[in-house]
Amino acid sequence: METVTGLIGYWVSNYAIKIVIALLIFLVGKWFSRKLSILLGKLLQKNKVDQILVKFLENISYYTLLIMVLIAAAGQLGIATTSFLTVLGAAGLAIGLALKSSLSNFASGVMLILFRPFSVGDFVTAGGASGTVNSVNIFNTVLTTPDNQKVIVPNNSITGGNITNVTANPTRRIDLVIGIGYEDDISKAKEVLMDVLKSEPRVLSEPAPSVAVSALADSSVNFVVRPWVKTGDYWKTLCDLTEKIKLTFDKEGISIPYPQQDVHHYTEKNAAA
User: Fold this and answer.
1) Which of 76, 202, 203, 262 could anchor a disulfide with 227, C-beta 3.0 to 4.6 Å?
2) CATH, range 117-165
3) Does pTM surpass 0.85?
4) Which CATH architecture does the domain made up of 171-252 adopt?
5) Fold classified for 2-98
6) What is the pLDDT of residues 17-41, one digit of tens each?
């Protein structure tokens, strides 16, 4: 009985205290790591570093510090650091093989940070989704669609395909195709279209807007109408111009034809004649 009590006392005095200290090291170290990573983020933001890079460096610094804390806690338990690093390396290799796609997402995240094809707040089409960039994380990028849905896109899907940054440039060109009837006056229609563009204050004078006949289609003579606007005004101006053109055409007696087909019916009598 005394031997058992002695063993328990020995274990408590030698291991239980070490476990408590190791646990304290981990908890305090984790809290300290989080605070330091947040402080780093604030310093980077103060120096006007890109928001995507700030978030990425915050995450990297946090997990790097957390690994150091784990090593320190393991050392307190008597685990040799070299042995721990060996085990950690072997475990990392096994996890890496098992999570090949996740590592691909991580590598893609690093590429997005380094080459910066877009920034937070840009509207992009990438990885099969379109939306405003909320954040670029280690493994994925978060977008918000125009109808306020949250889309999480794996980073390797983004770097593995085309990336369209809609808001990268300050101006955009609106492309409208407007058809008129073959019996309508082409010169008058062209003049009316130019007047509509000139009356719209959001249409830029440089580059100058253009109106030209683009095709003699089956049911209409088609014009391409191409004004330039500020990127932020694109959709509103597009909708307003479409409405103004229709109303002005109605007022000026210019028709906008719809696809139609003439059917000629022949009777047997007509055929014989």
Assistant:
1) 203
2) 2.30.30.60
3) no
4) 2-Layer Sandwich (3.30)
5) Helix Hairpins (1.10.287)
6) 777 787 888 888 888 888 888 888 8
